[in-house]
Each structure stands twice: as C-alpha cells, then as structure tokens.
Amino acid sequence: MTVAHILAEKGASVITVRPGNPLADAIHLLVENGIGALVVMDEAHTVVGIISERDIMHALATHGTSALDLPVSSQMTRKVVTCRRETTNDEVMQLMTEGRFRHMPVCESGKLVGIISIRDVIERQLAVLEAERQAMHDYINMA
C-alpha cells in the first residue's frame, strides 16, 4: 500500500499556518480541526516547516504563557521530512520511527498535496493484516 491509497481514503485536505502567525493561532487551528500538526507555508506556498502539539508544549514549558505571542517560525521544525504519493507504508513507518515524528507532508513537484499521520499508516496496516487473517481463516475452514 502507498501514500496515494491513504490520501484516496482520507482526502488530501491540509490545514496550514503562516510562519509569522502567533502560536495562539496555531493552537486554535489544531483544536478547531482536531489535528496534531500544521504545515507551515510561506507566501509562495512553499513548505517551510511543521509545528506539532509537541512543539507547542515545549514552547509553553520554556516560555510560559508568553509563548502564545511567539511567531510559529520560532518554534516550528524547519527540517521537514516529506514523502510522495508512491512512497510505501513501510517506508513511511521507517522514516517516522527513525525521525521520531508522527506527521509527514506529502509533496510532489514542490507542491503540498496532502499530509499523513502515523495513525493513518497504522490503520491501513491493520486493515491489511485483518484481510490476511480473514483469508487464512477462510482457507483453513475450506480444507
């Protein structure tokens, strides 16, 4: 299974934020949309970072409530690992595990085309395992 399959099932909608927006804006977007990370995009619609709940918690622990006024760019992860539609689930799981992150933007030809989370990958992996289990069960019962 590939990232394209995941995007086909979940959709390609991505909530983004500008690097100059305050962290308070990012928090509101996360809560309103029930998501764990935002892709940070500049005026040219280029991915320049990603900000997650973890990044925001770190900022709050370090700066207290004054962190809410800090720009997203001051707390975002700048080195963003991305994938493409043809990237396999196994490759995504390996990248996420090695990099210790849970959200990955999907980019093609320099354009953001979606985002996947570890939850998306695991749900699809569990569906494959369940299908294999059911096939084995059916095979055994036919014998």
From TrEMBL:
Domain of life per record: Bacteria
Keywords for the protein's UniProt record, in alphabetical order: CBS domain
Signal peptide (from-to): none
A family per Pfam: CBS
SUPFAM superfamilies linked to this entry: CBS-domain pair
Domain CBS: 8-68, 76-132
Protein's name in the database: Inosine-5-monophosphate dehydrogenase
Organism: Methylobacterium oxalidis
Lineage of source species: Bacteria, Pseudomonadati, Pseudomonadota, Alphaproteobacteria, Hyphomicrobiales
